[in-house]
Amino acid sequence: MKIIKDLLTINEYSRPGLKLNKVQGVVVHWVANPNTSAKANRNFFENRRNGKSGYGSAHYIIDLDGSVILAIPPEEVAYHVGAKSYRSEAIKRLGTYPNGNTLGIECTHVDWNGKMTPETYETLVLLCADLCKKYNLNPLTDLYRHYDITGKLCHKWFVDHPTEWETFKQKVKEQMGGNMDKIAANKEQVKFNLLGKNYSFEGLIKDGKTYVTARDLLEVLGFTVGWEAQSKTVIVKKKD
Ligand SMILES: [Zn+2]
């Protein structure tokens, strides 16, 4: 995934330079202008600084070719979901000013239905997976369409095709799972001889690496294995 830093100049209308609070969601948009490039949309945001075309911007803009322009640093506020009123469900989850704790991604598209190129779609999956990992977000609950927050018909493709939206979130989840999901799907018995004793564990041998669970291996070596969910840490102790 290619991300090109092409930041807007700080200005009242599209890059206020305010610090973003803790990121609690990622909002997906369409640019609502078929076959325009990420660069053209970035420049549209930039030109808002003269005050003649209102407020609005986003952090990321995905091009038709799948490359990404970073227009606003992810530590700063962008004006992508501001509205006079918000859906009550969104207020419950994000508070009364969602611009203050969400990142915005604009997607280019090829027609007025909002259909994206395969390259744009693929990058959207990768970018959302990266951001969910970085900010510890759940792709099934913390990814939003602009529509989910304000009711605006945006990203139109995903509003008109709600099952595509569900599929998309699942793809982000799979992307975050990376190899581990594939391992679970292809598991086999892996034989070990540990200090002279034979064992067989469910696992996988792939690309010169042997995968088994830490629990299986450590428990037969005489340790107890626990899991601390909050810090996502495996806790290994000697058996009493
Ligand atoms: Zn939008």
From TrEMBL:
<protein>
    <recommendedName>
        <fullName>N-acetylmuramoyl-L-alanine amidase</fullName>
        <ecNumber>3.5.1.28</ecNumber>
    </recommendedName>
</protein>
<dbReference type="InterPro" id="IPR012854">
    <property type="entry name" value="Cu_amine_oxidase-like_N"/>
</dbReference>
<feature type="domain" description="N-acetylmuramoyl-L-alanine amidase">
    <location>
        <begin position="13"/>
        <end position="172"/>
    </location>
</feature>
<dbReference type="InterPro" id="IPR051206">
    <property type="entry name" value="NAMLAA_amidase_2"/>
</dbReference>
<keyword id="KW-0378">Hydrolase</keyword>
<dbReference type="Pfam" id="PF01510">
    <property type="entry name" value="Amidase_2"/>
</dbReference>
<dbReference type="InterPro" id="IPR036505">
    <property type="entry name" value="Amidase/PGRP_sf"/>
</dbReference>
<dbReference type="InterPro" id="IPR002502">
    <property type="entry name" value="Amidase_domain"/>
</dbReference>
<dbReference type="GO" id="GO:0008745">
    <property type="term" value="F:N-acetylmuramoyl-L-alanine amidase activity"/>
</dbReference>
<dbReference type="InterPro" id="IPR036582">
    <property type="entry name" value="Mao_N_sf"/>
</dbReference>
<dbReference type="Pfam" id="PF07833">
    <property type="entry name" value="Cu_amine_oxidN1"/>
</dbReference>
<keyword id="KW-0961">Cell wall biogenesis/degradation</keyword>
